[in-house]
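Hi all, posting the design record for the shared folder.

TITLE: backbone redesign
STEP: 1 of 1
STRUCTURE INPUT:
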């Protein structure tokens, strides 16, 4: 089954591409002012525990693009999605719409998180102590919200 594009899908794609391309453009513009040594790893408290050269920032950019491309590819093949509920002709459209919204929301949050990590590395700062709980809470919160909607749709 092909899931029709909605306004929300268009918004998610635009926001993801804005973050990805904006981050790349910003990186290119300020490249010469980035310190030679930048944070490349943070502990659970958000403190820098490993430094690397500034070229290592490309790892975050590449991973961000790969996550975006991988999730976008998965979005295009509803047949491989694990619905978690029985799909019937009566609920099929609603179930797949909820799942597509969940996948899109998760993709957007992953792109935003990695874009934020890139910006923090460029400025050579520690992460806020609340970064990990907030980002993971939001990620799992999105999933719980859509799973509840999915169970209600069966």
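Okay, here is what came back for every position:
SEQUENCE:
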């Amino acid at each position: 089954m092909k899931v029709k594009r909605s306004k929300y899908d268009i918004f998610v794609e635009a926001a993801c591409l804005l973050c990805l391309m904006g981050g790349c453009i910003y990186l290119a513009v300020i490249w010469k002012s980035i310190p030679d040594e930048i944070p490349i790893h943070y502990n659970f408290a958000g403190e820098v525990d490993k430094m690397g050269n500034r070229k290592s920032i490309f790892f975050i950019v590449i991973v961000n693009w790969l996550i975006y491309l991988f999730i976008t590819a998965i979005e295009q093949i509803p047949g491989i999605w694990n619905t978690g509920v029985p799909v019937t002709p009566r609920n099929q459209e609603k179930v797949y719409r909820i799942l597509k919204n969940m996948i899109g929301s998760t993709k957007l949050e992953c792109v935003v998180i990695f874009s934020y990590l890139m910006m923090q590395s460029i400025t050579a700062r520690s992460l806020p102590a609340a970064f990990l709980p907030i980002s993971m809470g939001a990620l799992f919160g999105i999933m719980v919200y859509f799973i509840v909607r999915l169970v209600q749709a069966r």
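COMMENT: The chain is about 65% helix and 10% strand.
Let me know if anyone wants the other runs.
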